[in-house]
Amino acid sequence: MNALKKSAGALLAIALLAPAVTVLPTASAAPSPALGFGMNMDAVDKLSSHGARPDYGLFWVGVWTAKSGWDGIDRWLRAARDKGVTPVIQWWYWGDDISPSCVDNGCWSKLHNAQKSRAQWNDMTRKLAERVNSIMGSRGAIIVLETEFNKGGITQSWYAPKFDSMLTAQAAAIRSIAPNAKIVIGFGNWDKASWDRFPKTIATSDYLGFQTMRGSTKDSHSTYMSGGQAALDAARYLHNKYKKPTFLTDLALSSYPSDSYEKHQNTVLKWFFDHAGDFKAAGVKGMIYRGYKDSPTFNLANYYGWAERYWGLTRADGSAKPSLWTWVNGVKAVRGGAVSAPSPDPSPAPTPTLTTSISGPVIEAEAMAKRTGGGVVSDGAASGGRTWKQWSNGHVAQDMKFPDGGSHTVSFVARGQYANGAWPKAVLSVGGQAVATFTVGSSTYKTYAATVSVPAGAVREVKVAFVNDYAGSAGDRNLYVDRVAIGSGGSAAPAPQPTGGAPGKFEAESFASRPVGGRYSDGSASGGAGWNIWSNGEIRQSVSIPESGTYKFTIRAKGDKAGGVAPKMSLKIDGATKATWTVSATSHTDHVAYVHVPAGARTVAIAFTNDARIGSEDRNLRVDFVDVRR
């Protein structure tokens, strides 16, 4: 075994030092489907139980693997082998830290709390290939080289050939150790004009990879809804230009921030299956969806922020979103199998262990034992990122134990959806008796409470009922209940009604503080002008927030590139960075962030952070306006 390792190490060293790499013949492997489908390895059994067994099982390897160890990777490979699926491995070493300086000199990753270096990259590539060869053998695996590598200045004409040689060396090193592995070059789906700067990696790759991710925190509504067409355009471009099969390595559609985006997620996903024949014609061999289930603790420092927690086709508790059935039936249809109507949620939100009573002061509404006339939806402003949407007259209820005797405050946290001239009405009942009726007159979460007298140790049903549903031409009235609580003593009054509306739109050229930049005229800009931030700095505006809650910030901007790199723009609130974008569009484009903001006067700033002048090119950020809405 030691001799084998030494031999493999020698081959790796040769591959990595060679100035020019010979393209190896494509490795043999088990036949792949005409159009296969995959998801994360955790989903294999669940999808199989629905009759849509995946062809591919996804997992990720990155710099974190060096700290956590390879045992988990070995388990996934063995599971893929035993379950008869082909592993698709996202080898994502440089990630969002990638840049010429980072690759050449090493860098510290704040996201992963780790130092990155080319030496470690090469070593981990070797270790990954060894595991693939040892566990998968002749069955092989698909390895995606550096998903979304074409950013951070990597595609600049002076650097792209160098990184192209590095990627090609990585592919050769993998094949020298794991000859049955298939290699995919992992393009991010943007800036197609720069893709042909990596000819050697394209030539040696078995598949040409591309990805499509959409989330409300970064993409406009129109950009989100056109995600399917963007993917098809990428597949056609690669297939037609390079005459090689393609692979959709990372399809991810976020349902954040509300149930409306669950509908959008489903609509876009359905588009992919409706156009399956077009994707086949474009040489697509596989489509990999990012994840089966939402991840409520996922790191918000990742690019899409809150949207990163809502990629799943099911919610965090396993309850199905509409998109789950679109995926299941879409896979069946492509395979020529029978398609059935979606069954009721096969894995509903779990009810509490104590179904007769809850001994504790707080319970999430979506976990209450009795729930009628609604459903669980994603909501970034709610406790745990989920809430119970009461979309018709009905209630949530739970037997709860009152630990002490005497006076108790019983409360619930809720928000309303206004329609036909009225807000929703909620009736709070304890022990079968209505104790208060509230008008839930706010679109953000408020606490509504009443006082009751209950003996110590008593178990009483606590119920919140929605009693004035409306859905018609004048809108859709709904009640969103987040959680219910009991406390000792005191009295409480209904939450105050909202005071004021959305702050509105602010033209950048009229911001109160503009220490850097200058006004520019542009017929395509709102009001015919905008503000050009031509050096690192920020412009600031005071915005009065009438009530605490989640606000939608839309920044319309465009950028001037220098050295092939677009300007970076950040949204700050009271000095804290809330969102960051790369403004690559040369025409005004909306950049959207959903941010929870406390009530009061807030300083909103737009910052430009990577100014540069390269030859005759001057990198600038041009801001049209900032729009703040509820």
Describe this structure in words.
The chain has 630 residues and is of the alpha+beta class. It has three domains: 2-334, TIM Barrel, CATH 3.20.20.80; 358-488, Jelly Rolls (Sandwich), CATH 2.60.120.260; 504-629, Jelly Rolls (Sandwich). Helices cover 23% and strands 34% of the residues. Strands 1-2-3-6-7-8-9-10 form an eight-stranded parallel beta barrel, surrounded by four helices. Strands 12, 14, 15, 17, 20, 22 and 23 form a seven-stranded antiparallel β-sheet that branches. The longest helix has 19 residues, at 118-136. The model is unreliable at 1-32, 340-359 and 488-502 (pLDDT under 50).
CATH architecture heading of the largest domain: Alpha-Beta Barrel
Main sheet strand line-up: 1-2-3-6-7-8-9-10
Largest sheet: 8 strands, parallel, barrel
The CATH superfamily of the largest domain is identified as Glycosidases
The helix tally amounts to 13
Distance between termini? 63 Å
Computed Rg: 27 Å
- Say what oligomer this is: single chain
Short précis:
This protein is an alpha+beta fold and 630 residues long.
